[in-house]
Amino acid sequence: MLETLKEKFAARALPMAAEVKEFVKTHGNEVVSQVTLAQLYGGMKGVTGLVTETSKLDPEEGIRFRGYSIPELRDALPKAPGGKEPLPEGIFYLMLIGELPTAKDVINVSNNLARRAIVPKHVFDMLESLPRHTHPMTQFSMAIMALGTESVFADEYKKGMHKRDYWAATYEDAMNLIARLPRVAAYIYRRVYKNGEHIEPDSKLDWAGNFAHMLGYDNDDFKRLMRLYMTIHSDHEGGNVSAHTNHLVGSALSDAYLSFSASMNGLAGPLHGLANQEVIRWILRLQEDLGGGKPTKKQIADYVHQTLEEGKVIPGYGHAVLRKTDPRFTAQWEFAKQYIRNDDIIDIVHDMYDVVPDILNSLGKVKNPWPNVDAHSGALLVHYGMVEYEFYTVLFGVSRALGVLASLIWDRALGLAIERPGSTTTDLLKTRFVQ
Ligand code: CMX
Asked: Which of 38, 101, 221, 396 sits at 20 to 30 Å (Cα–Cα) from 343?
């Protein structure tokens, strides 16, 4: 009989939980990382303070999911029939199980998600009660909270579940949530921008293909883009704001809906996921200021200087960990090369790559002058007609669910403790270090 995903996970994670317990018992006093005073004030960057099994970020090379880089995964993960881009169900399987899936494994995940994809009516009713101009990320986060009425974990906890069963209830919540998010996100998009003309799901399509369909973009290239987009945005190790928030809130045994909604509130910040809308807003304003058309590199450089003089950041550039061009940026550039010709906004994104890093370097303080994932994604969406940039972070959020919810299941299986770092005060630090 075919092993289900849940059984496969249990077969892998439960023995590992026992190993980890032993590992901590034997090596618990080893020092992993030290903290300087500057790091206390500087967002703890460079301090290894978390365990996240699903992916690991290297500052020079970028993200690896269970050891596989993005170019390797574009090759190795199963594709939709006739397609060239990986199916995101595959990266979810990889992050959860730790091994590359077969095509059959991916179909099983796809079918499993399709069966779970029913969104209760009260979620749509709640969305309808909000003003249409409510930011899509706020609507998204609130809809996730409304979906929480269905939490298996909260229900079982109330009934007195044993802690060895936490992971299984979290698995159910995570799968239900991943299954339902595209429907909720598409509903928000169609409600806000398409006169509430909603599109029924097509359960024969894969998870990302169906998402594209419900958004109202049925052409094959957009479906390809969604598969790539949902794959590359899914995870970025554990310390970024959305992943860390999900883990932190989840560590209090808040269910997956509470944790993931909190995670999305972090993603909605302009220094994190909202940067994808800010990039397009920045480019559109530049075009508008110049009276339309394509700016020269000199005009782009002038606008970059002006933005910096106004005390703002250049969205899509820089990173807290990466020190090279983000491979997620490169994957999108390659997609553009493969599928798109003659597009002004994409040309501007590419021209910015020639202009921005030197200017940021010249400031002498920016640690990474290179583009991140958000520098490119909006331009691809605009190309296919999705110009409503305030929606972009919702797409990022749907994808991010794959990584952070796979991690939450692992957190529960490994029995990770409530997170509670210590804090201190400036006075105490001064007393200690200033003579
Ligand atoms: N434009 C202008 N200044 C920048 C900059 C940028 N793109 N990136 C960094 N800097 C500045 C910082 O604001 C900081 O200035 P102050 O010392 O005056 O406060 C200085 O350079 C040092 O910052 P850093 O150590 O290089 O960067 P951080 O780790 O503090 O911040 C990040 C990282 C991503 C928040 C920052 O690079 C930034 O604001 N980028 C623009 C927003 C963006 O694209 N965010 C998306 C990141 C990817 C994602 O999470 O989705």
From this structure: 396
